[in-house]
């Protein structure tokens, strides 16, 4: 296989695999001095590959031109083409990362494509598998941490809602108590007004009876005199005629007084009846309002109880989610420890060239550790 064929094969690998190949090729000379820069190149190329990201293997000509701009080594399109042709680029529609790396570090194409990769394939695959498990563990921990935060937020919201409903319930209960007190007072007032109306009616009856008695007495006297006129002798008859005339013409003060008393009693009774009727209507209305207030208070109490139950359930779910997140973090920590131990072992075994492969794996692990709490073995983000 020619060097260009080998270059093409390497260039078809993912960005990180190309960077690892280059790091293994460079390791005997620089012992990983440019390793972090290679890591950053993987990030840069991945950010410019809009379709596949870090899973990509090449950039178009414009994308590669932007790479040079990003690293402050701007070139014209023609200058870039001239340089990249020297490191095996034959088509500028798709330019692999390995071509760029060979050019930027000034390495010989033949030396790079034939550089030993060092690490045992089975060991590398095992290391990759361990890193995948670390990734899965971290993803699980992050998902559960997110779920725990969401559950905690929901619990807080529901607790706030429960308190609001409880406060509203207290207000409704206070209103119901006040309405009941008003209804009771209005009922008592209505009863009192009814008694006053009854008393006024009794006064009317008494006054009416007095008027009737006065009128009846006068009528009885009139009939007696009339009979006397018809049956008595001349002297007695004349006396009866005079007395009857006097009876008809005299100012009957007791009767007038009785009628006046009757009219006053009737007015008083009418007023008392009106007041009693209004008091009864008011008492009926306030009693209805009290019933409605009590129903509202009962409804509010039910809502408050339901809100409290929901808040308690949300709190329990929050605690459970937090425990699950903690457990997931513990599992992630265990996977990290396992991965670090294995990588340390393989770094001791690896040849000089294979160190590049191990460095990238350790760097991936360090990147994941940035998302662990520092008290749990995580490293600070920069």
Automatic annotation (TrEMBL):
Residue ranges with Low complexity bias: 310-328
Alphabetic keyword roster: Coiled coil
Basic and acidic residues bias (residue ranges): 278-309
Q: Where are the transmembrane segments?
A: none
Q: Name one GO biological process term.
A: parallel actin filament bundle assembly
Could you tell me which InterPro entries the record lists for this protein?
Answer: Calcium-reg_actin-bundling (IPR053356), F_actin_bund_C (IPR040810)
Q: Name one Pfam family in it.
A: F_actin_bund_C
Q: What is this protein called?
A: Calcium-regulated actin-bundling protein C-terminal domain-containing protein
